[in-house]
Known about the structure:
Distance between the termini: 6 Å
Mean pLDDT: 92
Helix content: over 70%
Strand content: under 5%
Radius of gyration: 16 Å
Shape: elongated
Amino acid sequence: MQNKFVAKQFIVITLITSIWIHIGEVLRALFVAFPRMEAFFDGRVDLNGLDKFDIGIALVWGGWDTLLTAILVFTFWLCAQVFGNNLKSTLISGTTTSFATIGVFWIATVNAGLGDWSTAFIVFPLAWAEMVVGAFIASKLYSRNN
């Protein structure tokens, strides 16, 4: 890997990797998180699932997923500078990103009384796997570009 940060390369790798992150985030939300949150709220809160999906919600999700991917790809790049482009960098960047984003979100959600630990303990491992796979994709894309 190059020691120099190349913005164009970073943007391209972020956009390609974000395809996986978009798919993972939407599937996890629609098939795991939303149904469990609806059960938790027992109909008292109306969640924005597929039945209410509109351009505004799509743009917010797209922005969140792209930001999440940019954090993941940048964290991978930093790890690869220190440890090399290898499994160690992939696991560290995927784990760090998942704890710093999805992990913090679910801790805050449960702490605020807006969710339960059983949901967090299901959703977080799925998010962790998603981030590790995303870091693996970034790793392969960085390898290809050198």
